[in-house]
């Protein structure tokens, strides 16, 4: 193959790849842009992955929100992390034990505003292995807790770990977010906690 023909073939491959990437980009843009308006949003097609805000009880929430752990009536700032599978809660003095042949865990929650400590005991739902960058994997007990987000309360699983070195004692992952909210990372504190909600 001559140098000129080789150049033409290479150019055609680059153009074809560029058109393919452009097509993919248009699909992504249309998927995001059409999510809340237009005929596609109301078509009801089960094959489309269209996100409709009316299907999300909390609507759009920010990257940082103030939430309440209902079990102990403690308000905590939370980082909303769509990359995390399971939500995580700051817990101290974590001790696993057995009760009636089942695995339980005893732990302490610290109110970030008042430093008041609350000791809790919960059955362990499961154990998760967390991969950490630059450190050994960590096994954490997972328990169910009630979480208030705005005017709604959800019972969800939380892995327990000491988050005292982190800015936010609460990390909200996909197990809470799925079907409840759309996250806009440019926003903060969009949810208003209503009193006497359970």
From TrEMBL:
Protein name: Retropepsin-like aspartic endopeptidase domain-containing protein
Superkingdom classification of source: Bacteria
Lineage, opening ranks: Bacteria, Pseudomonadati, Planctomycetota, Phycisphaerae, Phycisphaerales
Occurrences of domain Retropepsin-like aspartic endopeptidase (ranges): 60-189
InterPro entries reported in the protein's UniProt record: Asp_endopeptidase, Peptidase_aspartic_dom_sf
Cleaved signal peptide residues: none
Pfam families xrefs: Zn_protease
Chain coiled-coil ranges: none
């Amino acid at each position: 193959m001559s140098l000129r023909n080789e150049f033409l073939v290479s150019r055609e491959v680059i153009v074809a790849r560029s058109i393919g990437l452009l097509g993919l980009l248009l699909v992504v843009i249309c998927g995001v842009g059409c999510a809340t308006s237009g005929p596609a949003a109301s078509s009801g097609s089960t094959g489309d992955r269209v996100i409709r805000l009316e299907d999300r009880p909390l609507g759009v929430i920010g990257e940082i929100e103030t939430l309440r752990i209902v079990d102990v009536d403690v308000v905590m700032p939370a980082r909303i992390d769509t990359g995390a599978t399971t939500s995580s809660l700051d817990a101290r003095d974590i001790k696993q034990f057995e009760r009636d042949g089942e695995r339980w865990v005893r732990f302490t929650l610290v109110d970030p505003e008042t430093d008041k400590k609350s000791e809790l005991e919960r059955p362990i739902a499961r154990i998760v292995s967390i991969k950490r960058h630059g450190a050994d994997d960590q096994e954490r007990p997972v328990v169910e807790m009630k979480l208030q987000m705005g005017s709604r309360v959800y019972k969800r699983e939380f892995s327990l770990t000491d988050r005292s070195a982190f800015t936010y004692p609460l990390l909200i992952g996909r197990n809470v977010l799925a079907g409840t909210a759309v996250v806009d990372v440019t926003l903060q504190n969009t949810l208003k906690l209503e009193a006497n909600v359970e």
